[in-house]
Design brief:
By secondary structure, the protein is an alpha+beta fold. It has helices at residues 20-28, 53-68, 79-87, 93-98, 113-120, 151-158, 167-176, and strands spanning 3-8, 33-37, 43-47, 74-78, 101-106, 127-132, 135-140, 163-166.
C-alpha cells in the first residue's frame, strides 16, 4: 500500500488551532490507515489503498473543510518523494551552513516558466530561490524576520497556494518514518 506524507496549509497558524488528535480523526474517517501526525504544524503520515495522490488530496481537502470549517490546502508526497526532498541540495553547502534558514515550499504542480521568472524577481541580498519539480526552496541568508519574503507574498505573486516547511523538519520526518528513495 502506498504511504504518503500530507503537508497541510493553515494548520495552527493565523488563529486556526487544530489538535493533532482531531486532525488524525479527520484522516481516519476517510479510511486512511496508520495515520500519525508529525509535530503540530500540519504534517500527517498515512497509508492508503488509493494510489492516485490527486484524488486523495481532494478527498482530504473536502473532509478538512467539513471538519474544520475553512479551506486547508493539501500537498501529498510519496515516501520516495519525501526522501528525495530531504536529501536534495539546492544550494551550495557553505551557503546553507551560514544561512538563517532553508525552507521548502510544496506546490500542487511544477511552476511554469513565467511563474519561475516572477519568483526569481523576488530575490534579494537576503533571499534566494531554487525550483525543483513541485518544490520551491527558499534560502534566507539572515534571520527570516529580516526578510521581506513570506508565504503571502509568494501566493500573491504566483497566484497559487503553497505551504512551507523547514528542510530540517522534512529531513527529521523522512528519518523518523524510514522514507527512502525508490530502489534502483
Amino acid at each position: 500500500m502506498p504511504r504518503y506524507a500530507a503537508f497541510l496549509r493553515a494548520i495552527n497558524v493565523g488563529g486556526h488551532v487544530v489538535t493533532m488528535s482531531e486532525l488524525r480523526r479527520s484522516f481516519e474517517s476517510l479510511g486512511l490507515l496508520g495515520v500519525e501526525s508529525f509535530i503540530a504544524s500540519g504534517n500527517v503520515i498515512f497509508t492508503s489503498t488509493t494510489k492516485r495522490a490527486a484524488t486523495l488530496e481532494t478527498r482530504i481537502e473536502q473532509q478538512l473543510q467539513k471538519a474544520l470549517g475553512y479551506e486547508v490546502k493539501t500537498f501529498l508526497r510519496s515516501d520516495a518523494e519525501v526522501a528525495a526532498i530531504a536529501s536534495y541540495a539546492p544550494f551550495n553547502p557553505s551557503a546553507v551552513r551560514t544561512a538563517g534558514a532553508l525552507v521548502v515550499g510544496f506546490l500542487g504542480a511544477a511552476l511554469e516558466a513565467a511563474a519561475v521568472r516572477r519568483l526569481m524577481a523576488l530575490r534579494t541580498e537576503i533571499d534566494d530561490f531554487h525550483v525543483h519539480g513541485r518544490e520551491v526552496y527558499w534560502l534566507c541568508r539572515r534571520k527570516q524576520s529580516e526578510s521581506t519574503f513570506s508565504n503571502a507574498l509568494f501566493e500573491r505573486t504566483l497566484r497559487l497556494s503553497t505551504t512551507f516547511r523547514n528542510v530540517r523538519t522534512v529531513a527529521r520526518l523522512a528519518a523518523k518514518y524510514g522514507f527512502s528513495p525508490p530502489s534502483a
